[in-house]
Amino acid sequence: MNFFQEAKSLLKVNIRDYGMYIALFVIMLTFTILTDGLFISSRNISNLLDATGYIAVLAVGMTLVIVIRHIDLSVGFAAGFMGAIAAIMLTQLGVPVYFTIPIILILGIVIGMFNGVLVASIGIPAFVSSLAAMLIFRGALLQVTEKTGTIIVRDDAFNAIGNGYLPSLGQIAGLNVLSIILGGLVILYFVYAEISKRRQKIKYNFDVPSNKIFAVKLVFVSAIIAYVTWILAGYNGFSWTVVITLLVVAIYHFMTTKTVLGRHIYAVGSNPEAAHLSGINVKKITYIVFGSMGMLSALAGILYTARLQSATTTAGTLFELDAIAAAYVGGVSAAGGVGKVTGSIIGAVVMASLSSGMNLLGVGISYQYMIRGGVLAAAVIFDVMTRRKRG
After folding, report:
1. What functional role does this protein have (predicted)?
2. What are the distances in angstroms from CA 206 to CA 51, 80, 203, 263?
3. Global pTM?
C-alpha cells in the first residue's frame, strides 16, 4: 500500500476523529480568504480563543455527561449564578480572590452532585432534573443581582483571569518569548506522547500507521501548534483563559484515556447494564460526572465574570446550548459511549470561528443562528450515518 492509499484508508476508518479537524481547517481557510486575512490576524485569533474559553470548559464536562447518556441543561445559568456569587464575595463580602475561587469550585461540585443524586438515586430523567435546575438557577441569578442589575468587579487579580496574559520574558522580533517557550514545550510533549503511544502499540502487536504517515502527522500537528503560537506571540501572547482551558483539557484527556475512572465512564456510556454486571458502580460514576460538570460550570462562570469584569442578570444565557453544540460538533455520539474531550474543544473552536468569521463579514444575527443550527444538525446526521455504516 503506497502513501496516498494508506492515508485515504486511515482517513476513511477514522473519519469521526479527523472530520472535525478538516472542517475547522476549511472554515478558517474560507474566512481568511473572504476577509483578506483579517480573520487570521493575531488580534482576532487571540480574541476568538479568549471568547471560546468558558464554552470550551463547559463542553469538556458536557462531553462526559453525554458519553454516559445524559444531558445537563442547567450549566448555563449555574455558571451565571456562581459567577455572580463570586462577584458578591469579592465586592460585598471582601473575600480574597484566592479563597473565592476554591469556594466557588467546591460549590459547583456540590450543585453538580445534587443533580447526580436526582438522576442516579431517585431516577428522575436528566433532561427533567436539569431543566428544573436551570429554572432555579435562573431565578437565583435574578435574585442576587436584582438590586443593582450589574455587579462590577474591580479586583485586578480576578479580572486578569479573563483578560490578562502570561508575563513576557522579553521580545524577539516582536514575539512574546514566554509564549514561544510554552508553545515549544507543548510541541515537545505532543511528539513525546505520540512516540510513546506508538511504541506501546507496537509492543503489544497492535496495528500502527507506517513511519511516513506517522512522521507526516507529527509534522502537521506540530506545524499547527507552532503557527498558533506564532500568531498569539505576535499579539500579547497566551492569555490566562487559554492556559486554564488547556490545563482543563490536559487533565480531563489524561483522566479519560489513562485512568480506570475514564475507562469506567466509557463503559457505562456504552452499556450501563453490562457495566453494572461487570462490577462497575454506575451510580458512583454518574455522581462523579455530574459533580465534575458542576465544577466546570463554576469555572466557566469565573472565566465569564472575569472577562466581563462584572456579573449581570443575563449571564449564562444559552451557554448550555453552545456547550452541547460544541460537544456534538466535536464528535460525541448521541448514543453514548463515544466522544473525546479534545474533540469537544475543536467543536467549540469551530462554532466560535463560525461566529467570528460571520461577524467580520457582516452577516446578520438571524442568518448566523440558522447557519450554526445547520452545522449542528449536520454533525448529528454525520454521527448517525457513521454509526449505521459501522453497524
Report:
1. Part of the binding-protein-dependent transport system for D-xylose. Probably responsible for the translocation of the substrate across the membrane.
2. 40, 46, 8, 19
3. 0.92
